[in-house]
Backbone:
């Protein structure tokens, strides 16, 4: 039950991280123009993203323009695009794989450890997606901070951290956390399965066997008070029943010398007629 709860929590966290990564990838609020200097009244605000650059005017007009050439973009921006897209693709694959391997679904039912391994694979994909989304967010944050504190750069060309950087950072961490929960639940389920598999006992009590011998035997004394041979009650004579796990039984009678083994018509020593 605990592993099922961890799987559900990890799945929903991974789904939430994928949605946040999608929002951070599409929206242009990665870098926002900094309002610094003596004049705090600005008529235009510039925003930059991975796919477009937008301008917001004080009159309420909002205009965006996509980057015309992909090859003319800086190498760090191209790498950020690729990493965010790959992160989204891995998140979608992780959701599909995790749905197949979770305990609350009927897919791969009765396959044993394969179902838990599939859920663990989904968690690994969530981990990879979170790390890939974290790289461009951290790199862009570093570039914005370094550029802002550059002394020879004009104030009009300085940018601050946008909302998409915060959303991307939170989404990457949530995806990593969800993937870790899925992996941990997979490990706990496999450990529990091994415990249940080896926890069952033997159908018969096991006596002291000789080490190195494959057949385990157990012995007990069976006394039948109804059998009499020649007017002598055989209740005092111990009959030892030796049973082995291979299903064979042997009867040895201990008593006076020369006494034959007592038998009764229609009666077996195992107790079944």
Residues:
């Amino acid at each position: 039950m605990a592993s099922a709860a961890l799987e559900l929590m990890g799945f929903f966290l991974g789904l939430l991280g994928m949605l946040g990564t999608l929002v951070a990838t599409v929206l242009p609020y990665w870098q926002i123009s900094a309002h610094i200097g003596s004049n705090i009244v600005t008529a235009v605000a510039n925003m930059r993203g991975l796919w477009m650059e937008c301008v917001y005017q004080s009159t309420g007009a909002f205009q965006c323009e996509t980057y015309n050439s992909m090859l003319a973009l800086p190498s760090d921006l191209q790498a950020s695009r690729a990493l965010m897209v790959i992160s989204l693709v891995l998140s979608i694959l992780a959701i599909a794989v995790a749905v197949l391997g979770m305990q609350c679904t009927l897919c791969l039912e009765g396959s044993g450890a394969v179902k838990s391994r599939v859920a663990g694979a989904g968690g690994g994909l969530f981990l990879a997606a979170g790390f890939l989304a974290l790289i461009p967010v951290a790199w862009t944050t570093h570039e914005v901070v370094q550029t802002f504190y550059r002394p020879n750069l004009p104030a009009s060309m300085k940018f601050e951290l946008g909302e998409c950087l915060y959303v991307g950072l939170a989404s990457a961490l949530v995806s990593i956390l969800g993937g870790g929960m899925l992996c941990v639940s997979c490990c706990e389920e496999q450990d529990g399965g091994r415990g249940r598999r080896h926890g069952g006992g033997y159908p018969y009590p096991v006596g002291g066997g000789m080490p190195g011998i494959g057949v385990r035997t157990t012995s007990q004394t069976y006394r039948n008070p109804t059998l009499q041979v020649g007017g002598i009650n055989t209740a005092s004579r111990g009959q030892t029943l030796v049973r082995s796990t291979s299903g064979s039984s042997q009867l040895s009678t201990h008593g006076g010398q020369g006494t034959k083994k007592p038998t009764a018509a229609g009666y077996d020593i195992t107790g079944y007629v």
User: Anything to note?
Assistant: The longest helix spans residues 113-148. The chain has a mean pLDDT of 74. The radius of gyration is 38 Å.
